[in-house]
Amino acid sequence: MGFLNRSVSAPSIRALVWVAGLAALLGAIIGWVLPAQPYQAPWAWISFIGMCILDDILFGSKEEARWGELPKLTLLAAIIVFRRHPELTVLVAVTGAPLGSLLKGQTWSTQLTASAQWILAAVLGAVTFRLVGFGDTAHFLAATVALMAVYYALGPGVSAALEASLTGSNFESAFKKHRRLAVWMLAAGALLALAWRTPALEPAALKVADGTLVTVGGVFAGFILGGRTSRIFGPGSPIPFRPLAAAGGILLVSEVTPAPLSWLLPLILAIVAGIWAVRVRLYPVACGALGACCNEIVRAANGGQMPVEGQGVLTALSNRAATYVLAGPHTNLAWLDDRFSLPPPFPGIASVGDILIAIGMAWFVATLMLRRPSAVAAEDAADDLAAAA
Q1: Domain-embedded: residue 214
Q2: Cα separation of 142 and 188, whole Å?
């Protein structure tokens, strides 16, 4: 691969990616987009756009990088989920790539490179999956393995080639960095697609999608106000990672335990988180904790189930009958139940607690982007001095 570094210049390889992405996009428009029928669940592809943007912000190239990277797991999951509607995967790539790169503050050339790479992976990945076939379990598994191989080549392989050519570094060292945990991430993407299409796991997948969209909303707010995505996990970040992981484990346990533990564990966790947030003056976290308390209190007052306004909504949630119950005249604390219809195209309804949690999440993300701890301030000052010099 040393030959690659010597024979292909940075503008040449980047232009090659641009041309390949444009050709793939034109082919997808002619073959898939123009003859496509309207998709009945627009919230699905909107959710995947949000998940791809968040994936890119968390695991993609840094804001100063001149090359792009594929989403580690969500774009692959989109290819599998929308295997019968590949035009939606192309839509996810066309929308998510430039937005994710823009929110990270990358240059226009990097945004264009990332978009071309995402489109190329979406189109070639969908073509590979459909060529192998997915009519039965054996073909579905074979198509998934083939897709992972193509995605691996267009992800770590192309990103390493771009980085090596743009920075003058060695391809082998760049590839070693990009391939780290790549196979495990691809396997996680396949599991995400499985969860999205499995009725028993679909509610949890939808919760992840809802949380992702709220988080991306916070990122947009922070970006408009002049924040940086690099500050979310930058030096001095107030995110308590270990307690957060422990809290996630407790919430998972509460999902499979009977009442009263099913609501008591999350309630205790919310109270502890709220007290801690007030003490350290993290008011967005306190807002989210208050919302969680509202949800668990109304569940506790109604036999461990969340009351839902409307028979039609409850019927749609029939696979979670143990969690929800139809609200009525005898519902306790009815003003805290699920009663607010979500705006189109999103399905379902929300409670007062859900709204407070969403506000807290978006507020917290925007606050992290806008914070200026001493380490970040010193870094910005050094950049300003360097620019002045």
Answers
A1: no
A2: 17
DSSP of 107-132, one letter per residue?
-HHHHHHHHHHHHHHHHHHHHHHHHH
Helix count and strand count (H, E) for the chain: 17, 4
Q: Which residues of the chain have pLDDT under 50?
A: 1-7, 318, 375-389
User: What span, in angstroms and rounded, lies between the C-alpha atoms of 199 and 210?
Assistant: 17
Q: Which domain holds residue 264?
A: 241-388
Separation in Å, CA 378 to CA 43, 232, 372, 385: 42, 16, 9, 10
Residue 307: in which H helix or E strand, if any?
Answer: strand 306-308
pTM: 0.86
For 165-223, the pLDDT digits (tens) are: 888 888 898 999 999 889 999 999 999 998 888 776 766 777 788 889 999 999 999 99
Shortest CA distance to 59 belongs to which of 229, 173, 204? 229
**Pair (181, 309) in one structural domain:** no
DSSP 338: B
Pair 21, 158: CB distance under 8 Å: no
The tens digit of pLDDT for each residue in 121-162 reads 999 999 999 999 998 999 999 999 999 999 999 999 999 999
For 16, 125, 140, the CA distances from 136, given in Å and listed in that order, are 37, 19, 6
Are 185 and 125 contained in the same domain?
yes
Q: Phi and psi for 331 in degrees, rounded to 5?
A: -70, 130
CA distance 122 to 23: 13
